[in-house]
Amino acid sequence: MSDTDSIKKGFEAYDSGVEKSIARFPERKKSFVTGSKSPVKRLYTPLDDAGRDYARDVGFPGEYPYTRGVQNTMYRGRFWTMRQYAGFSTAEESNKRYKFLLEQGTTGLSVAFDLPTQIGYDSDHALSQGEVGKVGVAIDSLADMEILFDGIPLDKVSTSMTINAPASVLLAMYIAVAEKQGVSPDKLEGTIQNDILKEYVARGTYIFPPAPSMRLITDIFAYCSKSVPNWNTISISGYHIREAGSTAAQEVAFTIADGIAYVDAAIKAGLDVDQFAPRLSFFFNAHNDLFEEVAKFRAARRVWAKVMKERFGAKSPKSLSLRFHTQTAGSTLTAQQPDNNIVRVAIQTLAAVLGGTQSLHTNSKDEALALPTEASVRIALRTQQIVAYESGAAETIDPLAGSYYVESMTDRIQKEAEAYIATIDGLGGAVKAIEKGYVQQEIQDAAYAYQMDVESGERVVVGVNKFQIEEGSPKGLLRVDPIVGERQAAKLKELRAKRDNRAVEGTLAALKAGAKGDANLMPLILDAVKAYATLGEICDVLRAEFGEYQQKVIL
Amino acid sequence: MDDSAVSADRVRAGDARATARLISMIEREDPSRLAVLKALHAYGGKAHVVGITGPPGAGKSTLTDKLVGDLRGRGRKVAVIAVDPSSPFTGGAILGDRIRMQRHATDDGVYIRSLATRGHLGGLSRAASEAVRVLDAAGYDDVIIETVGVGQSEVDIVRIADTVVLVSVPGLGDDIQAIKAGVMEIGDVFCVNKADKDGAERVVREIRAMLETAVLNGAATRFTPLFEARSALRGDAGNAGGATEAVASRGPAEQGAFHHITAQATGHPNLEIPPVVKTVAETGEGIGPLVDEIKAHEAALAATGFLRSRREANLAWELGRGAAQRVLSELERDESRETLAELARSVLDRGIDYYDALDALEDAMKRTQRAATTA
Amino acid sequence: MERTIRVLVAKPGLDGHDRGAKVIARALRDAGMEVIYTGLRQTPEQIVSAAVQEDVDVVAMSILSGAHNHLFPRVMELLKEKGVEDVLVIGGGVIPDDDIPGLKGAGIAAVFTPGSPTGDIIEFIKKNLKRKA
Lengths: 555, 375, 133
Prior knowledge:
heterotrimer; A: alpha/beta; TIM Barrel; B: Rossmann fold; 8 strands
């Protein structure tokens, strides 16, 4: 009798025994599902491994298909980058927070911009009212950016900037600040999010329609591959797709489908895949279902490697390996009993680490209520440090590999993601699928199903629909001084008065001409930024040429 | 605002709240609406009523948004009624067309109202035609009704609109097939939206070919009589050769009004088909020409006298429907239900036959009506 | 015939997190209401004008960016300017408890923070409509 046969026999015996005992003592639920509502079996055994080929599907760290991780030593070499997303109010305030974080032991900066900045409006624009400095720092011009990084040597930190539609402008400002510090662009390390497709489906800070947006993105790819070679030119983001309510498999699928669209666009723009693909990075969510999340990260690496190799013929290992940043799931934080969020974040941190993330932001417990205070940011960072130094999870590579459950779930997520990608291919790719509303509809359906499960009590959220208590108002929340808007407006007025307005007009006219043609827009934007043209002025030029995107709403 | 504050004067003075509330009263068939509607009656009949219909995903809302913008540029006041289906299960509805038109929200010359079908099968809200009359009397120069056309039941739009724009797009698969299934003949102006996409030319060609075939075969399309009248005015043989004397006797000045209509080259001498306009609503491309064609159609309708006859036919149809509705409501009354049950029992018992029962029912209803009018 | 409740669901301000607004819109639809959804980036002026033209019974707004103290009261102000007093206005989003009394003082009837069941919102609307059924 072969191994498999004896296991099969043993399993059958076990199963019939279980059937008898649950006839008397039923299980807690009729059916068990993951956080993303996929069925979970009672037991996983070697029988679930059938059809998996270790060398082909799992392999070794740092080797195709990268299921076990993108480096060959992983966290035994060095820990992931602990990067706390921060930014609020004015450049002065945020600069102080960055210095605080660096003192506390973060190893990379992550800049949050306010919504007017993200949508390309100056602080004194009518639509900016009430929004200036609220969810991030307000940046109107190079002058603000100089203050933001004052005293922070840009050749010593890596900086991630959550900026999408106007990514070129903020990157140009960063390059200009570096030059003023005497740091040449080839020394710069960091990431811009620059992922417009997920803005259309999930996050909402779009400006331009898809075609010109894709052009801005490929212009950045081309520019950086020559001038800012260590910069991650895009962070293809599943994070917000998941926050919008998708399942784990959808998060992988839609993110990689977006990635395919960017690679297609860059190749169409004449770039060589191995020239820009090594600088593509990803950004995922870490949710509460520990094992499903670990499987998700592993599956994502495998799917991407296959896509890059088989579809695009990429050869460089760096093109094939999916490097990603992770943020713990904001949507799992509850306003009720906020201290419980610390525990959720700890589980999510563990998921990201066991899943092999390259960098991590941990949310603070009070983020369902307001922007985090310094104290709660510290706990969030400490959570990462405890997992790194005390949990043992970082001592060996991909410790959950070989778990019958995790491996079979990795296969399942890969299969589901590949099926979605095939559907999206059939619709003509991610851009078309988004224009048709397909991706939005899928996310929306999953989000609604989740909400209904919570409300029916089928899904328990501790402190929300079970184990509730009467509680008073949380105290000591961070507040952004509402005066920030006025202060920024005054700064803008001053700037417009004292800068060389002729130079500004000249650079904006050149940008306009460039936008009409097919020149790479990065150098033109850099010129405008250096002349202290404002973000709003630059984006207005592009708005006039490119038009504005109209949301496709699916309900 | 109290419903009783709604008056014809306020509606006519451009009070959006009064107009909006009156339409709500229409939607729930509130009897107190009738006094206001009657008072508004004298002021109606001036607006150009335009129907926009086509399959889901054709970009109708964006197109409507751009039409509103263009018409505003021509100095016209515009009202939009956007119709979406109610859920057959809950009666609820999500009305999302407005999203694309919100830039006009703060323009006093534009009124936008979303209506749910509320169980009405024709695809158009029952309230739509009354709402159109209100907006007409309120002084809007153009009233646009946007509705999803998904099959044969959607021809309702013809009963309200002076001019129907049938929107199509490339890439919906068998879009032309869907049009074939009975809505082709309702279009006065054909619009191929998203014309920057692959396959737009093919859609244009197919629509034209289908229209030509329809015209050559003398199919009873809505536009055939209009073209016959125009041909007669010009004195040529025209599409199907049938000339109406009444029209032929019109003067050259009225004939002049027709040159606005685009005669599409068809390859057949003297054969005309309705205009097919390509647009890219997202960028606004082709919107001006589309509005030109819509307005040319109105001019042609007016010059040939077909505007009046079309409206007459529509009103006659609506009156008939209104009367039928009254009979149905009459039958819903408890008294009627009793009579019905009684008659049914007689038929079952072989007392009277089915047809005598019907006659008896008719008599009974007439008696109640007489009683009601003399009371 | 039972009166159909009409609700305007709007996202004032610039934040693009519309998961909550969309879930609410759908839940209200499933509760038999007619929901007019106006999408992202709405100014208070646009919201109020749409509320008037659509003759809604309820305006439901969601903000996650922290701009609620500015934008919610502005909507109330404009409604008052237009003489609209029979519309129930509710808000939701990431809103600190401390801000809620101020918002209520400005006329926002209720504030629903993350984790509020859609059932509660539906019930609140049905119980607190300002217009008689």
